[in-house]
Amino acid sequence: MEYLIGIQGPDYVLVAADNVAASSIIQMKHDYDKMFKLSEKILLLCVGEAGDTVQFAEYIQKNVQLYKMRNGYELSPSAAANFTRKNLADYLRSRTPYHVNLLLAGHDESDGPGLFYMDYMASLAKAPFAAHGYGAFLTLSILDRYYRPDLSRVEAVELLRKCVEELNKRFILNLPSFSVRLIDKDGIHDMEKITLTAK
Amino acid sequence: MALSDYCLLERLKTSQTNCGDPQHIFMPPFPQATPFISRRTSRFGPPNHVLTVQRPFPLSHGTTTLGFIFQGGVIAAADTRASAGGLVACPAVHKITPIHSHLVVTSSGSGADCMLWERILIREIRLYELRHKRRLSIRASAKLLSCMLHPFKGTDVCVALTLGPRVIYVCSDGARLQGDIISVGSGSPYAYGVLDGGLSWSLSKEEAISLAREAVFRATHRDAYSGNNVDLFHIDAQVQQVKQCKYVRSQRLRD
């Protein structure tokens, strides 16, 4: 039902998420933001079961900020991703597992940009591009076909737009708008929302 | 309830997870309760009747409640029917409860659970105000309720809607959404249909009240589990109970 996508470029990561908050068949909100800012250069995109997403994402967010307060420097994206995965794994075999699917995107001074794919089974993979949700079935092949490691920012937004148009054409559910953000060495930048009218 | 807890007169048994918590919240000793029996089944009907009506999607909570924001404040409306399976258990239930001078809660789901959580929320908000000498904000109250409900996830406790100058939807499965129009319950799709068409920011108070009443009425007309009267609240700076429409159906027939 929900859709997340991330594309990593040579010095940036582009991420997008849909804006629908649904409860069974009703769209309760059309402008819901699924991205959580963990630090100045790390974003966590979180979808899954209704309450779990916010609870888990806020827990990770507060812990990353606590690390910065305690130690004086921020967690790198890779460290934050591994911390998140460890928490997911710890809760997986407890009585209250968190059913959330995540994309963590960040930019590190030494390692450069990074996009990490995590799912509710606490798997972790660093990937050049990734997507979550039923929409991923439709768009991963587009990403496979057109992705290059040296995509410019404009080309990456174009690729994102291609994916979203395919969703609009073939996906059974209506996802009218998508929030888009870009992370580079200067931090997180909000980009223009992609809004599509029904065909 | 709050006083006896605060004075430590009778300590109820608590689980390990909230020992030492200054805001003592009673939790059951078992970590995850089994889900309640589906409310759709009735044990009192004759055995050869088909008692359960399978819904194509899981929209339970036999009620219609709604809240929306407009230029004159916030309107909350709800029906007054309490259903237990196929039985109308009570035709005059108050689903909207003022819990503070500026806050109102509409409830749907299990009636007993909603009453309990309303009382707990009233207690916690009042204790916060006494301890910190300032009012708890609406978003913080909603977050408090959401965090208190989180351990009971999966038990289908209740779905509540907190209002002030905002409308926030809090669900026992942990969801917490702030919006401009929210409707909850089995009659909510019908109410959304009327609200989405007629709502705009610049409505006057009378128009907003009549729109809310119309939306709940349409939902009670189509939904079997909603019915009887319509409760309406209008919140400006303070909570004011606007009016209670009586006998919505017969009034409609007279038009």
TrEMBL record, chain A:
The keyword tRNA processing does not apply. One of its GO terms (biological process) is proteasomal protein catabolic process. CDD domains: proteasome_beta_type_2 (cd03758). It is found in: Cytoplasm; Nucleus. Pfam families: Proteasome (PF00227). The keyword Methyltransferase does not apply. It comes from the Eukaryota. GO terms for cellular component: cytoplasm; nucleus; proteasome core complex. InterPro entries: Ntn_hydrolases_N, Proteasome_beta2, Proteasome_bsu_CS, Proteasome_sua/b, Proteasome_suB-type. Keywords: Cytoplasm, Nucleus, Proteasome. Non-catalytic component of the 20S core proteasome complex involved in the proteolytic degradation of most intracellular proteins. This complex plays numerous essential roles within the cell by associating with different regulatory particles. Associated with two 19S regulatory particles, forms the 26S proteasome and thus participates in the ATP-dependent degradation of ubiquitinated proteins. Component of the proteasome, a multicatalytic proteinase complex which is characterized by its ability to cleave peptides with Arg, Phe, Tyr, Leu, and Glu adjacent to the leaving group at neutral or slightly basic pH. The proteasome has an ATP-dependent proteolytic activity. Belongs to the peptidase T1B family. Component of the proteasome complex. This is Proteasome subunit beta. It comes from Poecilia mexicana.
UniProtKB/TrEMBL annotation, chain B:
The keyword Magnesium does not apply. One of its GO terms (molecular function) is threonine-type endopeptidase activity. It holds the Pfam family Proteasome. InterPro entries: Ntn_hydrolases_N, Pept_T1A_subB, Proteasome_bsu_CS, Proteasome_sua/b, Proteasome_suB-type. PROSITE patterns: PROTEASOME_BETA_1, PROTEASOME_BETA_2. Component of the proteasome complex. This is Proteasome subunit beta. It comes from Poecilia mexicana.
